[in-house]
């Protein structure tokens, strides 16, 4: 009998571990999949986890009742694992069925409205609530099975919770660091399904052991079927425990959300950062649950202990903010040391930083939850552990949903993440005071003292808790001009040496520029290039406002409608600090700003455009929803009018840029590549129709004083310079791209570009890194077709234009060699001077000669 009990407990622990691993794999994969389907706006991002957690809470409640009412617990445990596995195998097809309904609703309601956010939540419920319902049923069933015949029944809640959280740690690390980056969403869902099937096999083994013991088909306790009725009228102590469970869940999810936001200012807002924080959080929770289970026999019971643990949790919440705010120098030193080793050690540094901030609080959260479950079960007589586990877990989950939503949309935008975390700590101090007061005696005075200390400490430390923008400024060695926080993230405007730039979650989304004049930056090129290739464009769209420089460049070409889609509202206010550089485009009556995810907006609306511009580099370095995928480009293609042009922003001639070219060639019939040496980047453009340069239109643009002034900031002196910048068209682009993988929704490799894993120092080095010399020589060899073959020009001016373009092209090659290939300073100067002699109007040569002489 003892051996059978131990074998059943061991099987239940293994099931908890496998089910926990599968649950986190399901959650991360579903989240990634639905962020592509429903968008990555704050509303859509919140909708998917809320739907998933709501499904788990319902599963906790329903199967908590079944766990105590039926003797077929192993059967139900196997059933929930089988159902979860089925949803894992059909996940993609299941989600695709919801898309048409959601798209139709979003078109009617408006993709950027709160009603569309409700539609996204409904769609998320339709997709993930059913699998989450079955996943949520595992915990109460496991608690009931582990408590059967156990001499220490209170340890069942801690053991099931701890082993499940330990498996969830493996799932978070495995999914975030290995499966999603290497094999994609669909395969990750299949791995999760196989984990569920493994748990199913163990459940079958447990059922067989039960049958052999002769325990199948009968209840082991006489009054089991009436236990849930007994739990319908809890006493005062039990009611308080349910309230504590709700606030514990509130704290857990609210703090997890706030930690993500605070740590984004230090370790970056990327897929790897999210995985690091989540893995650390789950590991600490698992350690807390398992350690508390080991200490159950030492008498740690009663409301008093719960009160002291909430008091400790309040202190840890405030301390986590202080660690994040006051220790960026130590964290950056840790990064610099790891960068000299390897990328793997760099990831380890992220995990260590996350452990410093979130570890202690998460440990206490893991210790609290099973204690609440066992205390509530004891308050109800200890006869219905499954119902107690399910009901407490459901309330904690609903509290977590409320906490995460309030933190993102209510507290952080108004108070900032630091003060919000301190506010959560004060809430825990209030719960601690209530629990200690209920314990009676001296505990009542201790509870009041805990609450007063928490409020006083928060008031005293308020200046230190509000330094999110100062942390960012300190990392860059710059002055903070402005800092705002909203549901999408923290936006900081920084200034150094007379130049300003915008950082979103501590990652620059633009190159430093003078706020009052235009300079040769990638933002400027991204706005001019598509407009120069689309004569007379009337409807222009740029995805991602940023500083507004790109949209301001577009405004010079006489378009009737200028639209921009920006996911972060605070970026719009930050763009006002660049009114001189962006020509005050936000005050232009032709301009309309839409706050939404760019991909989702294009998917839901049916409007067509002459020009669509997008700087996908910004999405890469911010770890945003992948945009340059085959599926996204198909959406863009369907939104272009005949002759319309799509510009995907700058790129350095590396493997990821070649992958971007291959992805463009997969979708569009015509792709061309331009090069502008002063920015150090290549610029691909794509169209459904042949890309032809209209000389008459280009000449008119250079004759327009306002446009010519802005083009001169790009170091273009005339039409011949722009025409000479054409490296290659479709055939040459195919040779330049070579063979290799594509970027797809299933495996969005751009999300795992090395630049998306950078901290501040690495970003500065990478953003200023010049293309490799061999890559530039390959570009010259593979491309540089005769651009005049693609120029529409009258016969009377063609001969003269050909001569000027020939000289400009020869000068451009010398500039590329001097800028990116030659290493000796004298050789560089000689190359630039040769370029100047070949083409006296070559502004590129003047630009680089001045830079060399300055340094």
Task: Describe this protein's structure.
Strand 6, helix 23 and strand 7 (591-595) form a beta-alpha-beta unit. The model is unreliable at 215-235, 296-301 and 755-774 (pLDDT under 50). Helix 11 packs antiparallel against helix 15 (343-379). It contains 36 helices and 14 strands. It has 855 residues and is α/β, with parallel strands linked by helices.
Layout of SSEs?
Blueprint: H1 2-38, H2 42-69, H3 73-89, H4 91-96, H5 99-109, H6 114-136, H7 138-147, H8 155-182, H9 185-212, H10 227-230, H11 236-267, H12 271-294, H13 303-326, H14 328-339, H15 343-379, H16 385-415, H17 417-439, H18 443-460, H19 462-465, H20 468-476, E1 479-486, E2 489-496, E3 499-504, E4 507-508, H21 522-532, E5 539-543, H22 549-554, E6 561-566, H23 569-575, E7 591-595, H24 598-604, E8 609-614, H25 616-621, H26 630-638, E9 640-647, H27 655-667, E10 670-676, E11 681-687, E12 693-694, H28 695-703, H29 705-713, H30 719-724, E13 726-728, H31 730-737, H32 760-767, H33 773-782, E14 791-792, H34 795-821, H35 825-838, H36 843-854
Helix pairs in contact: 1-2, 1-6, 1-7, 1-8, 1-9, 2-6, 2-7, 2-16, 3-6, 3-7, 3-9, 5-6, 7-8, 7-16, 8-12, 8-15, 11-12, 11-13, 11-15, 11-16, 11-17, 12-15, 13-15, 13-17, 13-18, 14-15, 15-16, 16-17, 17-18, 26-27, 27-31, 33-34, 34-35, 35-36
């Amino acid at each position: 009998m003892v051996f059978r009990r131990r074998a059943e407990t061991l099987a239940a622990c293994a099931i908890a571990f496998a089910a926990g691993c599968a649950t986190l794999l399901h959650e991360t994969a579903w989240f990634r999949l639905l962020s592509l389907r429903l968008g990555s706006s704050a509303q859509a991002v919140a909708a998917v986890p809320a739907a998933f957690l709501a499904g788990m809470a319902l599963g906790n409640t329903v199967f908590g009742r079944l766990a105590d009412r039926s003797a077929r617990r192993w059967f139900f445990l196997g059933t929930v694992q089988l159902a979860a596995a089925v949803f894992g195998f059909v996940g993609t097809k299941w989600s695709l069925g919801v898309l048409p309904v959601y798209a139709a609703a979003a078109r009617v309601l408006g993709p950027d409205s709160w009603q569309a956010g409700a539609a996204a939540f409904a769609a998320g419920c339709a997709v993930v609530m059913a699998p989450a319902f079955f996943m949520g049923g595992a915990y109460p069933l496991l608690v009931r099975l582990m408590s059967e015949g156990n001499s220490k029944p209170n340890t069942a809640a801690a053991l099931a919770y701890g082993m499940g959280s330990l498996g969830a740690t493996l799932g978070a690390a495995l999914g975030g660091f290995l499966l999603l980056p290497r094999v994609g969403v669909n395969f990750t869902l299949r791995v999760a399904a196989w984990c569920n099937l493994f748990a199913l096999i163990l459940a079958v083994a447990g059922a067989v052991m039960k049958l052999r013991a002769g325990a199948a088909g009968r209840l082991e306790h006489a009054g089991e079927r009436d236990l849930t009725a007994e739990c319908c009228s809890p006493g005062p102590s039990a009611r308080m425990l349910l309230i504590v469970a709700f606030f514990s869940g509130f704290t857990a999810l609210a703090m997890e959300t706030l930690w993500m936001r605070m740590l984004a200012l230090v370790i970056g807002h990327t897929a790897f950062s999210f995985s690091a924080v989540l893995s650390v959080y789950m590991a600490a929770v698992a350690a807390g649950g398992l350690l508390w289970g080991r200490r159950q026999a030492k008498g740690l019971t009663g409301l008093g202990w719960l009160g002291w643990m909430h008091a400790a949790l309040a202190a840890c919440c405030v301390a986590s903010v202080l660690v994040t705010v006051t220790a960026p120098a130590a964290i950056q030193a840790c990064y610099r040391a790891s960068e000299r080793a390897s990328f793997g050690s760099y990831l380890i540094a992220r995990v260590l930083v996350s452990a410093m901030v979130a570890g202690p609080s998460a440990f206490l959260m893991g210790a609290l939850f099973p204690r609440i479950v066992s205390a509530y079960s004891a308050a109800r007589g200890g006869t219905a552990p499954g119902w107690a586990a399910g009901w407490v877990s459901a309330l904690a989950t609903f509290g977590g949903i409320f906490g995460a939503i309030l933190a993102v949309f209510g507290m952080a935008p108004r108070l900032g993440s630091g003060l919000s975390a301190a506010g959560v700590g004060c809430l825990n101090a209030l719960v601690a005071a209530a629990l200690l007061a209920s314990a009676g005696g001296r505990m009542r005075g201790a509870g009041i003292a805990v609450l007063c200390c928490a409020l006083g400490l928060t008031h005293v430390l308020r200046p230190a808790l509000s330094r999110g923008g100062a942390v960012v400024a300190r990392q860059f060695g710059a002055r903070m001009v402005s800092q705002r926080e909203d549901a999408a993230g923290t936006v900081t405007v920084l200034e150094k040496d007379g130049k300003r730039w915008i950082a979103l979650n501590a990652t620059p989304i633009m190159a430093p520029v003078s706020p009052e004049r235009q300079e040769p930056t990638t933002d400027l090129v991204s706005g001019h290039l598509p407009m120069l290739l689309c004569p007379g464009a009337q409807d222009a769209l740029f995805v991602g406002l940023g500083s507004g420089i790109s949209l301001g460049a577009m405004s010079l070409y006489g378009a009737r409608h200028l639209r921009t889609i920006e996911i972060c509202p605070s970026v719009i206010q930050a763009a006002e600090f660049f009114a001189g550089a962006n020509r005050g485009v936000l005050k232009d009556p032709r301009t309309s700003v839409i706050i939404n995810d760019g991909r989702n907006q294009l998917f839901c609306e049916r409007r067509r455009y002459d020009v669509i511009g997008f700087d996908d580099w910004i999405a890469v370095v911010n770890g945003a929803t992948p945009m340059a995928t085959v599926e996204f480009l198909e959406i863009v293609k369907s939104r272009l009018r005949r002759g319309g042009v799509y510009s995907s922003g700058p790129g350095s001639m590396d493997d990821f840029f070649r992958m971007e070219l291959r992805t463009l060639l997969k979708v569009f019939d015509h792709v061309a590549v331009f090069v502008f040496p002063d920015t150090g980047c290549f610029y691909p453009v794509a169209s459904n129709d042949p890309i032809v340069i209209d000389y008459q239109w280009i000449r008119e643009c250079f004759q327009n004083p306002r446009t010519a002034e802005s083009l001169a900031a790009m170091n273009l002196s005339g039409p011949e310079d722009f025409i000479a910048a054409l490296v290659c068209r479709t055939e040459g682009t195919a040779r330049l791209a070579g063979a290799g993988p594509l970027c797809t929704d299933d495996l969005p490799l751009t999300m795992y570009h090395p630049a998306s894993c950078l901290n501040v120092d690495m970003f500065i080095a990478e953003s200023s890194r010049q293309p490799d010399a061999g890559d530039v020589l390959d570009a010259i060899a593979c491309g540089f077709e005769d651009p005049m073959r693609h120029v529409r020009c009258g016969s009377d001016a063609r001969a003269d234009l050909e001569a000027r373009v020939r000289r400009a092209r020869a000068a451009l090659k010398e500039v590329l060699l001097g800028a990116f290939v030659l290493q000796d300073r004298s050789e560089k100067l000689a190359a630039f001077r040769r370029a100047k002699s070949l083409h006296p109007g070559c502004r590129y040569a003047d630009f680089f000669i001045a830079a060399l002489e300055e340094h």
